[in-house]
Amino acid sequence: MQTRSLGSSGIETSPLGLGCWAIGGPFWVGDTPLSWGEVVDQESIAALRRGLDLGITFIDTANVYGAGRSERVVGAAVAGRRDEVVIATKFSSTFDETSRQTADPSDDPSYIRRACEASLRRLNTDRIDLYQYHWNDGPLESAAAVQDTLEALVSEGEIRAYGWSTDFPDRARAWLGGAHYASVQHQLNVITDAPAIIQVCEEAGLTSINRGPLAMGLLTGKYTTGTTVTGADVRSAHSPEWMQYFKNGHPAEVWLDKLTQIREILTSGGRTLSQGALAWLWARSPCTLPIPEFRTVPQVEENAGALAFGPLTPDQMREIAGLLNPTT
User: In sequence order, what DSSP letters do the residues of 106-147 get, joined into one string?
Assistant: First the structure.
């Protein structure tokens, strides 16, 4: 539980990361919000620095979060402490920083190079430790060209390693054998398992970076059937089609029901619900690296507190599996 190796890259990181989607602030595709709502940059910076103080060394962001704002906040937070952290960011999105509107993704090699340079400037750094392809179902026919561009960026010293943010096993396998292919970022939490992607990561020695480890906040216990999410929030009534944990601005009951079944196990031994959800991920596989979102110092402190408890036990994992997947 002390460290994780980022694939075979030789990069060592904490077993818990700081997911920086939520601190980017509002951005949209048309009228559909893609953010977690309004944020205060100074509070975000304080939370990031608190995470560093608590031993969290992995920071995950993307160029599109807040249309560049998240990367700038990360750059400000790690100023003077750059060598203490592993910075991961992502590319493929195109967007306008002024209107904060997103457009169609791109995998053109010239775009990748421009995006990399722009991220380096916003992060105020001379290298990106992990550069991730941010196109879930990116076309397989151009995957080799994307990988060649990323390997070239490694050779040029712009990035140290690369990964694919995808929930598709065929995409995760497309780059196997790449000298600096280190990770797959994908959806994974106690109520949404991903056995096929975990299998790829374990077989290939890749790090499984866990997006949505707290199920968009459901696994914090903050949301109930009576909760309504409003404003420029990706979980609101105007959420995109892929939003599964919230529907019409309310938590989806099917997921709340699952949480009710396993709440007692997750909170055993003095853990909070969030800490139990993170403990499940560490017990799920030795290659997992959860990156819970945050917006405040107390949220970072609670998540970091999970490190002291470590993973759930095998018996607890079996009990949860039996409750969520009962035999008929």
Answer: ---HHHHHHHHHHHHHHHT-S-EEEEEE--TT--GGGHHHHH
